[in-house]
Amino acid sequence: MKVALAFFVVLCATLLIPLGHCNPLEFTNIIPISRRSLLNRRALEGDFDATLARDEQQTVYQKYLNMFKILNGTIPVPENDIDDFVQSKYVDEVAPDTDTVLEQVVGPVDVSDVLLTIGMTDAIVNEVDMLYYGGLSIGTPGQELTFDIDTGSADLWVPSPWCGTKNHYDSSQSSTYADQGRRFAVSYASGTVYGTTASDTVMIAGTAIQNQTFGIVYRESQDFQAYPNDGLLGMAFGTIAHSRGLTVFETMMKQGKLKWPCFSVHLTRAQHAGSELCWGCFDPTKATGPINWFPVSRRAYWSIAMSGFDVAGERTTFDEMVISAIDTGTTFCYFPEPVAAEIYAQIPGSKDASATYGSGFYTYPCTSQVDIGFVFGDVTFRLHPGDFNLGMSMYNPAECLGGIFAMDAAQWPPNLAIIGDEFLKSWYSVYDYSDGGRVGFAPSVNNQ
């Protein structure tokens, strides 16, 4: 999907401590995120347009190139000092009672005055929630821009005036701009974006972050121009940042702007407004139950171990754990070819659609209410049937396209899955830096 973020940062190439370290009552930083249509309407009402899915599939191959190498041991996991910082400044200094905090999380509580959030817009394409983006400002005085919120990358980048008619960042208009003099480039499926790194003040929901490193893009591919967001906000670990700097969230922690070392994401379903990114907090108004926590496999991506899947109540356990990257910047779900084939083999009437749509596509009967779940630890987290159903096939109106795609075994590791918005709309997700990193899922209010 984010097909042309090539140059710098990461859209392009891109556990366990007390729950109190993500205290729900101390929210001071929430930003709403949104999604907007990229196309006015689909060519034929009800038909599935495979173009965007094919584009995203190619993007995913490029985005997780380094993840392949990390999993295969080709390159070591990069390191920075953020884990030691979190331990000393958050974990050792703050230790509330876990049970008490958990009670507060799931109980009724008015948090309107203490959440630091930004709203996000949901970009809906052909009735599919394709992209969530939110706003923040850069520079002094602040220049307002919108950013794709991406837990699958770690760079903040903005377009420069050279990028055409889109909203852009003009360094000459900021009194706090500083040129870092480093080239910034990232290759992405459809091209490469070029620029340089700089630092400036970033303002998020009234909170100022000084001297934040980011990329200024001077050239971006034409397809990126079609997206409604101006730039990209990477929320993965800074160890994979192309800018070689801390992420915005890590800088906020270092500068003492956050109460807790975690952020939380709520994604709406088929609603332009209402999505939300909560900085340093958990918003209990977006969840209907407690959090289940899972440690990250490596401090690079927000990747956790998946032990199996469930179709219609029948659980299948993997012989080898599948590492799953939890990625708000990806729309669909992507699995190794053998795993995807095994999932669809348990859906009556499903078919390999590679001959008509391309490698990795599957169809199933539109009349089916497919009940699929992913197993993390020993807990099954279900996909909403409506999110899994991407629309009817243009070749057969009785068949619909499934939202799980197979990745070519010749190009993709046998133990890597990408879990995108299709899943996250059903689960309020929390990303915690404590104890090396962990991801939490709580039932979303979307499912009420």
TrEMBL record:
InterPro entries: Aspartic_peptidase_A1 (IPR001461), Aspartic_peptidase_AS (IPR001969), Pepsin-like_dom (IPR034164), PEPTIDASE_A1 (IPR033121), Peptidase_aspartic_dom_sf (IPR021109)
Entry GO MF terms: aspartic-type endopeptidase activity
CDD domains: pepsin_like (cd05471)
GO biological process, alphabetically ordered: proteolysis
Residues spanning the signal sequence: 1-22
Active-site residues (renumbered): D150, D327
Annotated transmembrane regions: none
Domain Peptidase A1, first and last residues per copy: 132-442
Keyword vocabulary terms for this entry: Aspartyl protease, Hydrolase, Protease, Signal
Protein family (similarity comment): Belongs to the peptidase A1 family.
Entry protein name: Aspartic peptidase domain-containing protein
